[in-house]
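[09:14] KT: can someone run the structure on this one? pasting the chain below
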Amino acid sequence: TPELTYETETVKVGREAGECQIVFERERFPMVSRRHAEFRLQNGRWFLIDNNSTYGTFLNGRKIAQPEAIHVGSAVQFGANGPI
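[09:31] RB: done, structure tokens below
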């Protein structure tokens, strides 16, 4: 997987191409919501935030309910059985 770099403090993930920087196709990834989750930089740390997605956002195999700090090597999954 190629490494991507973003110059913003928020990187949105979902199926909505006009709003999200990381976009998944509906046909291939139906478990990803239109505006599924986001990565947000706050005080020098990155956080993962679920945007009330239908199938949840998982950090290292655990479904998150509130913003969670992420670290290098963290596994983020969008929806149960979704892309990691």
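[09:33] KT: thanks! The chain is about 0% helix and 35% strand.
[09:34] RB: yep, looked fine to me
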